User: Fold this.
Amino acid sequence: MQSVDAYLAEILAAIRPLAPRELSLEDADGGVLAEDITAQWPLPPFDNSAMDGYAVLAADTAAATADAPVTLPVAGEVAAGDTREHRLAAGSCLRIMTGAPLPAGADAVVPVELTDGGTARVAIREAVTAGDSVRRAGDAAAPGDALLASGIRLGPAPLGLLAATGRASVLARPRPRVTVLSTGNELAAPGTPLTRGRIWESNSFMLASAARRAGAVAYRQPSVPDEASHVLAVIEDAAGRADLLVTSGGVSMGGEHDVVKAALEQLGTVRFRKVAMQPGMPQGFGMVGTAGTPILTLPGNPVSAFVSFQLFVRPALRALQGKAGGHQRTTRAVLTAPLRSPRDKRSFLRGVLADDGTQITPLSGQASHQLAALALANALIVVPEQVTGMQQGDVAEVICLDD
Ligand code: AMP
Ligand code: MG
Assistant:
């Protein structure tokens, strides 16, 4: 048997990160930046108003108080996007909107809230000082300033920043494309009638969702019957369109019934092994197809497949984007009930972590087909290989499942 850590290390050592590509900002969402971004232009590009109000010379408002407002004539209006060259004459003001260019001669903006909102003349109730409510060109970033470092994951704010600096595309490692494939003669698509001996197929929905949550673009392949040549053909075809393949089922000890194993063992590029864990002992990893697409073959029991995804597929997806690190956030919490665990295997029990994160309650229904308990869980309790039991009050390591 291989240890969990040794198996993961083998996977990570074999996976090559996807090549960076120039991607539109929309396609780059969820990708990993592969260049350092520096500002090419000042941000903002020109002095502009931070408020809706009146552009003034601050000195003209010096005497303003609530009891004795200063009244100025309103000489015009500047809205955002106005391209005219405005000049403020001393002793007057211009109505100005947020984001509008500050007129030449003005040095401050009086927010409309500090005035009577007049259109021909405006009464100003408070003095402002030079620079008030003005956003100076380059005050967010000056040309040459470092904005984003290679290696960050692109999400809402970085993409917004790239657009704000005028970039329409960026060099990034894309989100990996994952194809999820289930095998089993017993599998029927949900929504279709069940006949004797069949179950509704669930793993592909679960694994595709998990892959999307982990940052991948996931496709579900219709489930494949237990016939080795058919399984091999589907896998080799899918390999051409994916950066990672994930199968479920067909890798245990059932001989020719375990078709994923039977089909891939002939290739010699995928190695099957037992990993010292529960659930999820039978595992396979290797490369398939002409491009050497990595494949992870997960056991079919739904909870085993889920745990295997968290432990091995998630880190593999990160490795495809050139990122280290593995499963979700871990924490430590106090057990509210005792639990048992097999000797010499690392076990991953389903549990509910309290809202405040201090206590963890193991769920009942810990068998590897019991998807109902998994659906209630927000955490996996990690029990080390040497530990065969833990008591109420013991502190356990916990993998958080809510992302
Ligand atoms: P296997 O790993 O193929 O021996 O399957 C182990 C168990 O998981 C069996 O009870 C299968 O019926 C079940 N199983 C396999 N694949 C799926 C799937 N895609 N959805 C739901 N259950 C599955
Ligand atoms: Mg099967």
In short: Residues 183-184, 249-250, 300 surround magnesium ion (ligand 2) (CB under 6 Å). The helical segments are 4-14, 25-28, 156-164, 203-213, 228-239, 259-265, 302-320, 371-376. The mean pLDDT is 96. The first helix runs from residue 4 to 14.
